[in-house]
Amino acid sequence: MWTLRLLFGETATWRDLYSQNYLIAICVMAVVQYLGNSILVAIGSALKAGDKLWSSWRKNFLWTSITYFAGAYAAGIIARVIGNVGFFAFAATIPIIAIVYFTYCTYMKNVENSASQAEQARRHVEELNRHIAEQERIGKALRETEQHFRNAFDYAAIGMALVSPQGGWLRVNRSLCDLVGYTEQELLESNFQAVTHPDDLGNDLANLYRLMQGETPTSHVEKRYVHRLGQIVWALNSVSLVRDSDDQPAHFIFQIQDITERKRAEAALQSLSLVDELTGLYNRRGFLAITEQHLTAIRRNKKMPVILYADLDGLKVINDSLGHHEGDRALVKAAEIFRETFRSSDIIARIGGDEFVVLAAIGPEESAEFLTNRLQEKFKAASAQWNHTYDLSVSVGLAHFDDDEGHSIEELMALADSAMYENKRHKRSRHNLTPELISPRMEAVA
Q1: Of the candidates 216, 193, 189, 191, the residue with the CA atom closest to the CA atom of residue 203
Q2: What distance in Å separates the CA atoms of residue 371 and residue 374, rounded to the nearest whole number?
Q3: More confident position, 442 or 97
Q4: Residues pairing with 355 in the sheet
């Protein structure tokens, strides 16, 4: 009312149905009332949603304001028309008004549908942009992973290759090319059989066949390659098989470590009679001669060296009861079990009548106790298949290298020896391990 009085003065001048200010007054009333109500509601919505006042009002009240103003204006016109022409004359215009009204309603629905479609399109575009950004992120991560693998493969210190099931080189790295003296292109046009020593080829093919048949997950073998210049290159060949989605062989992964120097050192030790004749293992002199060189290699590969000292239980009883020939058979069998238990790169020696020592390399995820347990399990399994009147078992002691302590090899062997005898005493107290232990089995067989 204050707004109307401010614009038109006393109410008598604009309340008159036939006054020229009547329609304007009606519209002003509609504007003031609608703005007041809608702004209050928009303020509440904006505060809840955290939007700006204008954005909230435009989104919720802009289009409804048109309907509100049009309705107010139409009401004023209808009142004037009825006053001028009478009610019945106005009633005749109702169909026309209805057509105009429904046309307007249809227009408003189309406007709302267009706004809804525009909002859906906007959301679809946002979702598509998020999907594209996620795909780009995944693609970038895959490219980085592939680049890391390529660098690890190409710049590995040992020879690495991908090999087809037929033996063809699919991919080779620089270290392998240097190992055999051929260029990358020359190797890719050939196969691994062409650079393998003829005497080792049959064993190689047999190992790969076992991999493809699923008989073993990996293959580790020492073999000879023939260098381009004709010299022999000894290598530790580690092979695993990659299968495709149909579980069919896709390719082999070859890891080829040059062990030529080690083989030369072993040959030199053999020539110096540093090997035990009975078991083929190093003797004490050979073990001490090669350990310093091997320790350097272990530390270079960032592994921890450990000394394992073992004593074959009951050898004296076997010799006294069954003869030294049977004792020798037990020692040879024990040596075989040691070879099966430890890596070919570990140093194994027989340093006394029934005593063995091992210099092993422990990786970051391994433990010396794991090696001890594996050795005991190997002896237990061998005894189960050992068709003799006695069991094979060992007592074991461990000594870890500590650079801060500065112990020599022989000092560490002495520490491991003490730990081994402690283990043997513990076993004797627990199992009453005496010379009479084998007698019941001998009498039963007899």
Answers
A1: 193
A2: 5
A3: 97
A4: 311
Q: What is the mean pLDDT of residues 271-285?
A: 86
Instruction: Count CB neighbours of 72 within 10 A.
Output: 19
Give the residue ranges of DSSP H helices in 50-93. Answer: 53-85, 87-91
Residue 233's domain comprises 159-258
The answer to whether 115 touches 53, Cβ cutoff 8 Å, is no
Is residue 369 one of the residues assigned to a domain?
Answer: yes
Tell whether 325 is covered by a domain. yes
Q: Check whether 187 has a pLDDT greater than 80.
A: yes
User: How many domains are there within the chain?
Assistant: 3
Question: Are 234 and 336 contained in the same domain?
Answer: no
Beta bridge partners of 237: 221, 256
The CB density around residue 318, as the number of other CB atoms within 10 Å, is: 24
**Rounded CA separation 173/151 (Å):** 10
Can you give the CATH number for the domain in which 408 is found? 3.30.70.270
Q: Domain ends where: 63, 92, 121?
A: 92
CA pair distance 257, 242, nearest whole angstrom: 20
Do both 237 and 382 map to the same domain?
Answer: no
pLDDT tens, position by position, 334-370: 999 999 999 888 999 999 889 999 999 888 778 888 8
Q: Which ranges of 258-395 would DSSP assign to H, the alpha helix?
A: 260-271, 284-300, 315-322, 324-341, 368-385
